[in-house]
Amino acid sequence: MTIELTVSGMSCGGCAASLQKALLDAPAVTQARVDFDGSKAVIEGELSKAELIALIEAKGFSAK
Q1: CA distance 27 to 61
Q2: Which of 23, 34, 35, 60 sits at a 20 to 30 Å CA gap from 2?
Q3: Mean per-residue pLDDT for 17-36?
């Protein structure tokens, strides 16, 4: 399943890279791409939208 989320709270490309790594470290995530300029995250895996939002918020960002 592919889910696209709008992510806010990223202040630089390093934030996007850090979030992308955190998403990829989650066992149920098979692919993740975080775009700082577009404030988007596209995630493939077995997690629900709510679970992904919780994971992103745990890293200090907001998502919807």
Answers
A1: 20
A2: 60
A3: 97
pTM across the whole model: 0.94
Task: Enumerate residues 6+ apart whose C-beta is below 8 A from 63.
Answer: 5, 6, 7, 8, 41, 52, 53, 56, 57
Amino acid letter at 47? L
- CA 27 to CA 11: how far, in whole Å? 26
Chain centroid to Cα 55, Å, comes to: 8
Distance in angstroms (rounded) separating the CA atoms of residues 15 and 9:
9
Q: Check: CB of residue 61 under 8 Å from CB of residue 18.
A: no
Q: In angstroms, how far is the first alpha carbon of the chain from the final one? A: 17
